[in-house]
Amino acid sequence: MNEMRDRSTALAPLGEGARCALISPSGPPVPGAVDEGEALLRSWGLEPVLGAHALDRHERASGYLAGSDADRAADLSRAWTDPSIEGIFCLRGGYGAIRLLDHLDTEALAAATPKPLYGSSDITALHEFWQQRLGVPTWFTPMIATRDLLDSPGNVTALHAAVMGERRWELASDDETATLVSGEARGEVTGGNLSLLAMSTGSHPSVVGRAEGRIVLLEEIHESPYRLDGLMQILLRSGYFDGAVGVGLGTWVDCGPLDEIRALMTELLTPLGIPVVWGLRFGHGPDVSSFPIGRGVTATLTADEQPALAFD
User: Fold this and answer.
1) What is the predicted pLDDT for the residue at 89?
2) pLDDT tier at 2 (50, 70, 90 boundaries)?
3) Which residues of 217-253 are buried (b: 16+ CB within 10 A; e: fewer)?
4) Of 223, 215, 220, which Cα lies nearest the Cα of 241?
5) pLDDT, tens digit (0-9, with 9 covering 90-100), for 235-294
6) DSSP character string of 258-273
């Protein structure tokens, strides 16, 4: 098996008529948003294929889980191993992806030809699994059936460009982007949602990665500053950042005063002695980037008067 060839199929653009699975690895999607997401994909010339359990609700936790763990994992595994499916879109995040990890057959997944897997937030658990257990990159993008995507023309444009391969990958910045710790770093890109990375520290060691030699990206939503502090303590004390070469901080939607969060991250990350950039446009909210993450995806983080993260 040619590993680099297989990685490249996970990063390849989708073509006209590509069949794309729509699955719910985490929370239950809003049905109306699913219809809008399907219509959006069709407008791009793609053929959406709804997973068998995509609209399910968990018998006990119907408010926050889309069906049973086994059924959600089966939809994901079926989409990944079905050669007629060329891409996989996660309908939404929420919570629950980490509960799938013990239901995934690593050997069966590894035997399949890789394909693009799109999602963010709670899907960070799958990004980590794909990076550490399968050695395959994935895509950190807004979910196809969420208001974050559907109500943001900028997000739609960025996702479309990533999916269809219309331009070079990018991680956007704006007037708020700033250097917290100066320097330059190059390495593989890892990370994602802070709370999911913290949850992953309790997973089997072969699932959880360490950031050695990598640039770590972090973002969050709906967590207060003291909670962010606690989540960072879990990662720091677990050794997650050991050997990391840089940190890029994204959006912090509904997490409290941004000045307070910026000061917290400066306090906690400066002792690492690696470049840190604040305010990159990825995560939740409007006008965020869609980009690949994980195994084989490398970039340069520049922390100076014009901070940026540029993919190779």
Assistant:
1) 98
2) very low
3) bbbbbebeeebbeebbebbeebebbeebbbbbbbbbb
4) 215
5) 999 999 999 999 999 999 999 999 999 999 999 999 999 999 999 999 999 999 999 999
6) HHHHHHHHHHHHGGG-
Within 13 Å, how many C-alpha atoms sit on residue 111's CB side? 9
Cβ 58 vs Cβ 95: under 8 Å: no
What is the pLDDT averaged over residues 9-19?
96
Helices and strands in the chain, H and E counts: 10, 13
Topology adopted by domain 178-311: Glucose Oxidase; domain 1 (3.50.30)
> Which of the residues 53, 58, 127, 284 is marked catalytic?
284
Full strand arrangement of the beta sheet holding 19-23: 47-50, 19-23, 87-90, 117-119, 138-140, 291-293
Contacts of 157 (CB under 8 A, 6+ apart): none
For CA atoms 166, 280, 303, 129, the dihedral sign is negative
So where are the chain's domains? 3-164, 178-311
Percent of the chain with pLDDT over 70: 96
Look up the CATH superfamily of 3-164: Murein tetrapeptidase LD-carboxypeptidase, N-terminal domain (3.40.50.10740)
Q: Give the pLDDT confidence of 194-248 residue by residue, as tens digits.
A: 999 999 886 655 445 689 999 999 999 999 999 999 999 999 999 999 999 999 9
- Annotated catalytic residue within 128, 219, 220, 223: 219
Residues 6+ apart with CB under 8 A from 252: 219, 220, 221, 228, 258, 261, 283
pLDDT for residue 1: 39
Is 284 labeled as catalytic in the residue annotation? yes
Place of tokens 């005063």: 257
Q: Is 121 a catalytic residue?
A: yes
Catalytic residue (choose from 24, 121, 152, 290):
121
